[in-house]
């Protein structure tokens, strides 16, 4: 299985965010883009940040092929997809630049 570079993009910001697989050769990289909209959300409020965080988590899971171990049956693939997920989510939360979203991510990352 080729190692993959996953990409999560926040459409409203028109930015693309790289995720993982630094060790993979450039010819083996696969770029995946998932659009996430937060139009109409007040991302500075706790409620708006919570809604956006849920969307970002779902997009990161999709982009990084996060599946249960019983489906994957490979610890290395599971580790790679989870590392991708964590990096993609952290990167996009930082790029969105919302204090409420950053606090929520920090809380969720500790648990």
Structure in words:
The chain has 111 residues and is mainly alpha-helical. The chain has one domain. Helix content is 50%, strand content 9%. The protein has 4 helices and 3 strands. It has helices spanning 46-63, 69-72, 75-96, 99-110, and strands at residues 7-10, 15-18, 35-36. A hairpin with a 4-residue loop joins strand 1 (7-10) and strand 2 (15-18). Helix 1 (46-63) runs antiparallel to helix 3 and helix 1 (46-63) crosses helix 4 (99-110). The longest helix is centred in the C-terminal third of the chain and has 22 residues, at 75-96. The chain is elongated, with a radius of gyration of 14 Å. The chain starts with 6 loop residues before the first strand and ends with a helix. The model is unreliable at 1-26 (pLDDT under 50).
Key features?
111 residues; mainly alpha; three-stranded mixed sheet; 4 helices; 3 strands; disordered N terminus
